[in-house]
Please model this.
Amino acid sequence: MKHKHKVLFVVSALAGVVMLLDTASAQGIRSDEFNTGTLDTFWRFNDLRGGCTQSMRDTQAVISIPTGLSRDPVSTSQGGNRAPRLVQRVGAPGSDVGDFGIITKFDTVLNRKFQIQGIEAIQDDKNYVRCEIYSKTDTLVALLFTFDDAGNYNTQGQVILPASVFGTRPLLLRLDRIDSTFTQRYSSDGGINWIVTNSAIHRIKVDSVAVYAANSDSIQPPRIPEIHAPAFMCLIDYFRVVAPLPIQLASFTATLQNNNQVRLNWTTLTETNNFGFEVEKSLEGTQNFHRIEGSFIPGHGTTLEPHYYSYVDVTTSPGTWYYRLKQIDLDGTVHYTEPIRISVLTEVGENGKRTPTEFALDQNYPNPFNPSTVIKYEVARESRVTLEVFNLIGQTVGTIVDEVKPAGFYTHAFNASGLTSGVYMYKLAAGGRSFTRKMVLIK
Model:
C-alpha cells in the first residue's frame, strides 16, 4: 500500500466561475501554499449555478454565497454538484491519484439551518465521493455520499454529531481513501483526536479533489431559493494532504449477554501501524467517557486482511451506555471511533414495560455475516416504520419492515442467501427521521 508524505497547502478564497484544470503535468495533490499567485496554476473556482464569489487573503479562502443561491444539489437534481467549490486537478483525466488523506479546517460557525461545507474526491462531474458537515437547526450532521456514472445519489452514512460540537470553531473535516474505501472523520480539538463518522466503498479513479461550501432550502417547502436559501460565507483556513489514518472499520456493535454484560464486537478491513485498542464508555451521554481498566486489545500492525475483535464489559449497571474505541498507533497517536449506544434495562423493565426515549438504529450483528444477520432498532412513539436494504448503487434488494409499529424495541433477522458478496446499506425510516448503516456480506 502506498501512502503519501504529509504535506501542507493553504487556501484563500470568495467565489467566481471557472472550469477544471486539465493540465496533464499537474500529477499528484499539490502541496504549494494556496494564495492569489497559485490560484490559476493549481486551482479553479467552479460555480455552475453562478452568482457566488471567491476571494483570498493570507493563507485563507472565502466562498461567499448570496441569499437564494447554491442549494444542495441532492434537493434540486441528481445529476451533478451545484455547490461552488475550489477544484484541483491531481492527475491527467482518467488517471488515479491513489491513496490519500485530506483535511480541511473550516473556521466558520455553522449556526444557521442547512449551511454546508465539505470535501470531494472526483472522477468526473457525475461520479464522485462527497464528504460534508451541515447544520440542521441546532445540530451538526456528518454526511458521506456518492454519485455513480448515471448521476444517481446514494447516501452511505449520516451521523448526528454530539451537541457540544455545534457552533465549534474551528472544525476539521477529514476524508481518507485506501484502495476503494473512503472514510469520513471530524475533529473539534485541532486534529488531536479524530472521530470516525462514516465509511463507504466506491470504485472510482480520483483525478481531482475539491473543497466546497453550499446552503439549502430543502426542508422549507415550498422550495423558493430566492427566499429560503440563506446567505453564507465559508472561511477555509487550510487544505492539507496527509497519509490515510491507520484502520478501516467495517463494523462496531454492542449486544447484551449474561445478566447485563455488554459484548462489543468490531471488524477492521485494513490496518496500518495499529498498536491496538482500548475501550471507553460513558453513561447517559457522550460527554464523559472514561477508559475501562484492562480493556486493551493488541492490533495486527499493518495488514490488508479483515480482523475480528471482541471485548466483554462485565461492570455495566442499568442505564443507557455509550461505548467508543480508542485506537492507538505504533507511534502513540490516538484516534476515536464514533460512539455506539446500548440500553441496559433494570429488572423492572425487562418484560417490555420500558419504552425507548428516541428513535435509533443499531449496527447489525454479526457483521460481516453469511448469510443471516440481526438488525435491532427502537421506536420512541407509534409510527410507520420502513426498514430496507440497498446495494451501493441505490437499488432496493430487500424490505424487512413496512408497517405501523407501536413504541418499543424491535429485532429482525435478515437473510441474504439470494445476494452476492459485497457491501450493502440498510435504512430505517420512522418518526420523520431516517438512519442508515452499512453491512458486509461475505460468502
Q: What stands out?
A: Residues 1-26, 347-352 have pLDDT under 50 and may be disordered. DSSP finds three helices and 30 strands in the chain. The chain has three domains: 7-242, 247-344, 360-441. Residues 39-42 form the longest helix (4 residues).
